[in-house]
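<context>
A single protein, sequence plus fold
<entry> Chain with its tokenised backbone below
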Amino acid sequence: MKKGLLGVIAITFLCTVLFLSTNARAETQHDMMNMGPMSTLTVDGYILNYSVQTADEHKKMMTDMKIDPAKMKMTPQATHFFSLEMKGADGKVVDNAVVRVKIIDPDQKDQIQWAEFLKEMNHFSCDFNMQKKGKYGVIVLFKTADEKKHIAKFWHELK
């Protein structure tokens, strides 16, 4: 009797875990689809998912989500929108970091922006003027609530 009951409990637990993980994966893919293609990197235990969209792609995404693009704070001369979702090792969204993003264009000119956390989108964002095709160096500096500073560096290529 005990073995039968333990078997039923084990199967119920397994089915619950499989169902929850499938739903979580679907939500994550849906969130990422809204932002376009995202890339992931890990820095000091923090998981960073980032996306670079053209201003037009971003406006279309906002319209598709029934958000008025006129309410966006994009700089008029900006050509691209940078978004950064940050999660701790526990998987929870980090919304209280101070984030600064620097990009270096193919001509070695740089732009630096403070990224603002958008509660309704659950990510940090800022915009840049990225008119030239080629490789851009991206440096993300962020300070977490524990006052520790972190840095992520990567390349982003505009084709």
About this structure: The longest strand covers residues 134-143. Residues 1-34 form one domain.
